[in-house]
C-alpha cells in the first residue's frame, strides 16, 4: 500500500499534469479558431474564382489548357497532410491508414504497377510514410524544402507551381490530395480529391449558382481568361487544404487534451479519496494508540 508521502507526491504530479493539459487545450483552441478565421477569409476568394470559371464554361467557347489534359496514368502524385507535432490523438494514424487504403484502391483501379510519388506534409507524416515507401518499390517519398503544416502564402504558391510543372511536363499524370476536412472541433472528415487534371465536374459540384449568371463580354478572349484563372483556382484549393489541415490538427489536439484533462481530473479525485482514507486510518490508529496507553 502506498504511504501518505507517496500519495501526496502522486497527487502533486497529477495536479500539475491537469494544469498543463488544460493550458495546452486553451492554446490549441486559440490556434484552431485562428485557422477557422483563415478559412472564412479564403472562402469568398475561392467562390469568386469558381463563379468566373463556371461562367466561362457556360459560354459557347472551346477551352484548351494543359491543366485539363487527361491521359493514361503511369505515375501519379499523392499529397498527404498530417501534423508536425504530436499530442493530437490518433490524427496521424487515421490519415496514414486511409493513405494505405487509398493506394490499394488506386492500384485496383489503375493497375498494380502504377508508380506513386508521395508528398507528405508534416514531420509525423514524413516519418510514417518513409519506412512504408522503402518497403514498396513503386512508391517514393518526395520532400520539398519549406513545405510543412505551417506553410502559407508564397510557400504554397511554390508548392503548387512545382506540382503543375511536373504535371504539364509529363513527369506525373495525376495529382491527388488526402487530408482532414475541418467541420467542427469534434468532427473532421477524411477527404480524398483530385487536383490535377482539373475536371469540369469540380465546379458543377461546388454549389455554384448558375441560375444567377448574366451574359458576359470577355476581354481578352474567354480562353485567355480561362488559362489565367485556372492556376488561381488550383492555388486557392491548395491554400484552403493547408488551412483546413491546420484547423483539423488543432481540433484533434483540443479533443486529445480534453480527454487527457478529464482523465487527470478523475485520477486526481481517486488519489485524493485514497489519500484522505489513508490519513483517516492513520489518525484513527494514532488515537487508538493514545487511548490504549491511557487505559494501561
Pick out the low-confidence regions.
none
Query: Which strand order does the major sheet show?
Result: 3-2-1-4-5
Supply the number of structural domains.
1
Structural class: alpha/beta
**H and E order:** HEHEHEHEEHH
Strand content: 5-15%
Can you identify the CATH class?
A: Alpha Beta
CATH topology description? Pyruvate Kinase, Chain: A, domain 1
Total beta-strand segments: 5
CATH superfamily, please?
ATP synthase, F1 complex, gamma subunit
Query: What would the average pLDDT be, to the nearest integer?
Result: 85
Report on the structure:
This protein has 296 residues and is an alpha/beta fold. It has a single domain (29-254), classed as 3-Layer(aba) Sandwich (Pyruvate Kinase, Chain: A, domain 1), CATH 3.40.1380.10. It contains six helices and five strands; from the N terminus they run H-E-H-E-H-E-H-E-E-H-H. The protein has helices at residues 4-58, 91-110, 123-134, 154-168, 201-204, 222-295, and strands spanning 75-81, 115-121, 139-141, 174-184, 187-196. The chain has a five-stranded mixed β-sheet with strand order 3-2-1-4-5. Helix 3 (123-134) links the parallel strand 2 and strand 3 (139-141). Helix 1 runs antiparallel to helix 6 (222-295). The longest helix has 74 residues, at 222-295. The chain is elongated.
